[in-house]
């Protein structure tokens, strides 16, 4: 509080926009960090069963996995009624054996999360939709309860729990999918999202934007750790060009099947886009797909 007021008076004296300090209820505190946890403030005790936090004491913990490398920082955070300690550790990279295979991915329209240049159609797991419907139900009942009532508070907690569960399921899906791609390919080429927003209509692709950004981040760091490459390319016209002969179709977005009027090549639209994405990276295209029947359609990666 002292810091907040000192900052306030300093800004007043300097004639800046001051901004009177606001009250911050306990609900709004949800994390704090020990910036030098490796040296001071935090200590793992009892063979990994407890953690000593300076100023708080020894707390019982369940380690989700053993600590690796050198501890840098530790952040204590609360999510709903759950408390976590997040350790940031510096570790050595863990490179995978060299792999020359490259793949392009098209961030798909429903129901596909993504589609690869090898014809794999990856669906987002079904339980997302189910959980989402449940969430909407809880959300509706919250609004029916009186403000400040006990029932409302309890329902809100349930709502938070459901939100957390969906977030965790999504993260789990992203991790497994990214792991698969990184294990299988030396280079993964995707559409650059910063450009994507401008290049494509919001209606076609906008809905899942946030999910993709998170996925691509996961993909990037996994690839980095494994010594593999992830490349973002300009997605302009990737869903309009024929990957075989380069003919550009004006408005093919709504057709699932892509049949090139110039050369007769027939492909799944998103697979064609993924092949174009791959080609954008400057990799010599692999001619395996250059045949006239749709390749590998209908194969999907099931999430275990
Ligand atoms: Zn063509």
Strand order of the largest sheet: 9-8-7-10-11
Helical coverage, percent range = 25-40%
The count of domains is: 2
Structural class determined from secondary elements = alpha+beta
Query: What small ligands are held by the chains?
Result: zinc ion
> Mean pLDDT across all residues, rounded?
81
Largest sheet: 5 strands, mixed
- Kindly report the oligomeric state of this protein: single chain
Shape: extended
Number of helices: 7
Radius of gyration: 25 Å
How far the N terminus sits from the C terminus, by CA atoms, comes to: 49 Å
H/E element sequence: HEEEEEEEEEHHEHHHEEEH
Parts with pLDDT < 50 across at least 5 consecutive residues: 284-304
What does this structure look like?
The protein has 304 residues and is α+β, with helices and mostly antiparallel strands. Helix content is 35%, strand content 21%. The strands form four sheets. The protein has a five-stranded mixed sheet, sandwiched between helices. It is extended, with a radius of gyration of 25 Å. The two termini are 49 Å apart. The C terminus is likely disordered. The site of zinc ion has 8 residues, from loops. GO terms for molecular function: DNA binding. Pfam families: Cas12f1-like_TNB, OrfB_IS605.
């Amino acid at each position: 509080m002292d810091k907040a007021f000192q900052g306030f008076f300093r800004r007043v004296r300097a004639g800046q926009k001051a901004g009177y300090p606001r009250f911050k209820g306990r609900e709004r505190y949800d994390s704090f960090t020990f910036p030098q946890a490796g040296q001071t403030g935090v200590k793992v005790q009892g063979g990994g069963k407890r953690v000593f936090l300076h100023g708080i004491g020894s707390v019982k913990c369940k380690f989700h996995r053993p600590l690796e490398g050198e501890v840098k920082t530790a952040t204590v955070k609360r999510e709903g009624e759950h408390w976590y300690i997040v350790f940031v550790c510096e570790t050595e990279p863990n490179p995978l054996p060299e792999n020359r295979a490259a793949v392009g991915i098209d961030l798909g329209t429903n129901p596909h999360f993504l589609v690869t240049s090898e014809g794999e159609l990856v669906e987002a797991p079904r339980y997302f939709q189910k959980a989402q419907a449940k969430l909407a139900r809880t959300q509706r009942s919250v609004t029916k309860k009186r403000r400040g009532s006990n029932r409302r508070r309890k329902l809100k907690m349930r709502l938070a729990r459901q939100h957390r569960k969906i977030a965790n399921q999504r993260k789990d899906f992203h991790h497994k999918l990214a792991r698969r791609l990184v294990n299988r390919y030396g280079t993964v080429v995707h559409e650059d999202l910063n450009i994507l927003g401008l290049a494509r209509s919001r209606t076609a692709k906008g809905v899942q934007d946030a999910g993709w950004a998170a996925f691509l981040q996961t993909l990037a760091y996994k690839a980095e750790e494994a010594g593999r490459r992830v490349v973002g390319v300009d997605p302009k016209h990737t869903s309009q060009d024929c990957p075989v002969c380069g003919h550009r179709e004006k408005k093919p977005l709504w057709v699932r099947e892509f049949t090139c009027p110039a050369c007769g090549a027939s492909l799944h639209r998103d697979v064609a886009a993924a092949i174009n994405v791959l080609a954008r990276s400057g990799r010599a295209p692999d001619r395996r797909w250059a045949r006239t029947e749709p390749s590998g359609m209908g194969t999907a990666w099931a999430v275990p």
